[in-house]
């Protein structure tokens, strides 16, 4: 499968989910990383008009879980999140966020991923780490 086909499959997989609601769009993929964007609009604001931390966490978890699922044999296992930790480092009212998930450890039963979410200027908005476990689906 080409990179473009993998990205199209990921974006199709996201239809009718929270990812579609938040306008999360996968834009790049590699052997051990995945990139997606999310616009900062009132849809993802908290009542003070700033980016809601839960929206950043949703972007981070979407990246981490999706990355784990595309690097395994999905006919045997599924990757499910068991822990996510987010540090919200800078507020944002508008613009485009880009998140990049990088596998730090790809074990047989557990994956550990680091996710950085940056704005269009490259400023770090959120830093997250995530643990996924692989469960048998047979």
TrEMBL record:
<dbReference type="Pfam" id="PF03061">
    <property type="entry name" value="4HBT"/>
</dbReference>
<dbReference type="InterPro" id="IPR029069">
    <property type="entry name" value="HotDog_dom_sf"/>
</dbReference>
<protein>
    <submittedName>
        <fullName>Hotdog fold thioesterase</fullName>
    </submittedName>
</protein>
<comment type="similarity">
    <text>Belongs to the thioesterase PaaI family.</text>
</comment>
<keyword id="KW-0378">Hydrolase</keyword>
<dbReference type="GO" id="GO:0061522">
    <property type="term" value="F:1,4-dihydroxy-2-naphthoyl-CoA thioesterase activity"/>
</dbReference>
<dbReference type="InterPro" id="IPR003736">
    <property type="entry name" value="PAAI_dom"/>
</dbReference>
<feature type="domain" description="Thioesterase">
    <location>
        <begin position="49"/>
        <end position="126"/>
    </location>
</feature>
<dbReference type="GO" id="GO:0005829">
    <property type="term" value="C:cytosol"/>
</dbReference>
<dbReference type="InterPro" id="IPR006683">
    <property type="entry name" value="Thioestr_dom"/>
</dbReference>
């Amino acid at each position: 499968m080409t990179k473009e086909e993998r990205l199209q499959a990921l974006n199709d997989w996201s239809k009718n989910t929270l990812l579609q609601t938040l306008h999360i769009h996968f834009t790049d993929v590699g052997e051990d990383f995945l990139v997606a964007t999310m616009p900062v609009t009132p849809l993802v604001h908290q009542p003070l008009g700033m980016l809601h931390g839960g929206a950043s966490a949703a972007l981070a978890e979407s990246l981490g879980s999706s990355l784990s699922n595309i690097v395994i044999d999905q006919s045997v296992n599924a990757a499910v999140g068991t822990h996510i930790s987010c540090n919200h480092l800078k507020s944002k009212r508008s613009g485009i966020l880009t998140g990049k998930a990088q596998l730090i450890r790809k074990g047989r039963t557990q994956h550990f991923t680091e996710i950085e979410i940056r704005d269009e200027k490259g400023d770090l908005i959120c830093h997250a780490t995530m643990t996924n476990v692989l469960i048998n689906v047979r």
